[in-house]
């Protein structure tokens, strides 16, 4: 067949000219190994040096003295998968489970507080002080219990020690809660024979010592123990150690007379009964007892006439008269 025959079936060469329907400048991949990848984008602009020459990659050759065409845009970075936000720890106001509670570590493991922070000497002193207070409190409670308890073997054998502990500061008077509380007002009064500075002797009027104590207590938020109980207890002591004829019973009766006499002499000296330069020579004490009137709604009938108990005259020693016994 003629070589110019258009129907030749000879295979096309790899460097043939592209057909008119193909895109200019786009090489056709020959059969066989794949050609290199052609970069995307439009071809670089023509230079005044002359026509471009093709290269193996298909782009026109750029002379070395000319700056290269702008580099192709960098591929966009692929978005990195975002990690899920980690939950922030929430403030805790206390563990719900004691087992989950973190162990508390002190800032200073060796730090000591309270009594442990003291030196050994002061720790021993504090322990001894606490022991002494505890023993004293127990002894006091025991003494008060034995004092108010009914008569028993302990009170019979140690009654004197119990009374010495209780009287007069810790006296317990339960008559207010008894079935028959006190229903009488008892007033202790005294008068005296005094010698004046000029040598004359006179007898004073009656001094109501109970009324003086009552006036000192009335309206006083913190009355003294002396104003409340001294005179009253002295009179109770005397009546308990004297018979109906006012005669002392044993040595306790004589002691009760001396105790009451010293109290009334001191009260007379406080009231200046003897005057300036005078002295008390002897005293006489009496009691004035009046029944408390019943309430208006009661039908009980009681006498409100005062009853007196008059004691004999007691001579006053010179040292007591001068106020030397306190």
Plain-language structure description:
This protein is of the alpha+beta class. Helix content is 29%, strand content 11%. The protein is built from six helices and six strands, in the order H-H-E-E-E-H-H-H-E-E-E-H. The protein has helices at 120-148, 153-166, 209-217, 225-240, 250-270, 318-321, and strands spanning 184-195, 201-203, 207-208, 279-291, 307-310, 314-315. Strands 1, 2, 3, 4, 5 and 6 form a six-stranded antiparallel β-sheet that branches. Strand 1 and strand 2 form a beta hairpin. The radius of gyration is 62 Å and the shape is elongated. The N and C termini lie far apart (170 Å).
- Give a short account of the largest sheet: 6 strands, antiparallel
- Beta-strand segment tally: 6
What percent of residues adopt helix (DSSP H or I)?
Answer: 25-40%
Percent of sequence in beta strands: 5-15%
- Taking all residues together, what is the mean pLDDT? 77
The gross shape turns out to be elongated
Q: How many helical stretches?
A: 6
The succession of helices and strands, N to C, reads HHEEEHHHEEEH
- What gyration radius follows from the Cα positions, in whole Å? 62 Å
Structural class: alpha+beta
* Low-confidence residue ranges: 1-8, 17-23, 49-54
Q: How far from one another are the termini?
A: 170 Å
């Amino acid at each position: 067949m003629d070589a110019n025959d258009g129907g030749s079936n000879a295979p096309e060469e790899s460097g043939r000219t592209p057909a008119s329907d193909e895109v200019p400048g786009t090489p056709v991949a020959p059969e066989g190994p794949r050609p290199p990848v052609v970069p995307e984008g439009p071809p670089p602009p023509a230079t005044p040096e002359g026509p471009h020459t093709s290269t193996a990659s298909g782009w026109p050759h750029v002379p070395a003295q000319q700056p290269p065409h702008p580099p192709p845009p960098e591929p966009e970075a692929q978005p990195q998968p975002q990690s899920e936000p980690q939950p922030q720890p929430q403030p805790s106001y206390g563990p719900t489970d004691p087992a989950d509670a973190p162990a508390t570590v002190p800032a200073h493991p060796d730090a000591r507080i309270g009594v442990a922070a003291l030196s050994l000497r002061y720790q021993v002193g504090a322990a001894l002080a606490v022991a002494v207070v505890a023993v004293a409190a127990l002894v006091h409670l025991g003494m008060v219990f034995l004092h108010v308890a009914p008569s028993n073997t302990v009170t019979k054998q140690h009654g004197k020690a119990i009374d010495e502990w209780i009287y007069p500061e810790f006296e317990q008077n339960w008559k207010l809660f008894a079935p028959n509380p006190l229903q009488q007002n008892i007033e202790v009064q005294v008068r005296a024979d005094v010698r004046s500075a000029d040598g004359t002797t006179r007898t004073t009027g009656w001094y109501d010592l109970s009324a003086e104590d009552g006036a000192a207590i009335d309206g006083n938020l913190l009355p003294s123990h002396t104003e409340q109980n001294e005179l009253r207890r002295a009179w109770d002591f005397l009546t308990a150690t004297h018979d109906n004829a006012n005669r002392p019973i044993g040595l306790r009766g004589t002691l009760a007379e001396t105790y009451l006499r010293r109290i009334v002499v001191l009260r007379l000296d406080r009231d200046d009964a003897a005057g300036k330069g005078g002295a008390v020579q002897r005293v006489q004490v009496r009691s004035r007892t009046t029944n408390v009137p019943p309430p208006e709604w009661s039908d009980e009938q009681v006498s409100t006439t005062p009853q007196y108990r008059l004691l004999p005259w007691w001579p006053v020693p010179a040292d007591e008269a001068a106020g030397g016994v306190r």
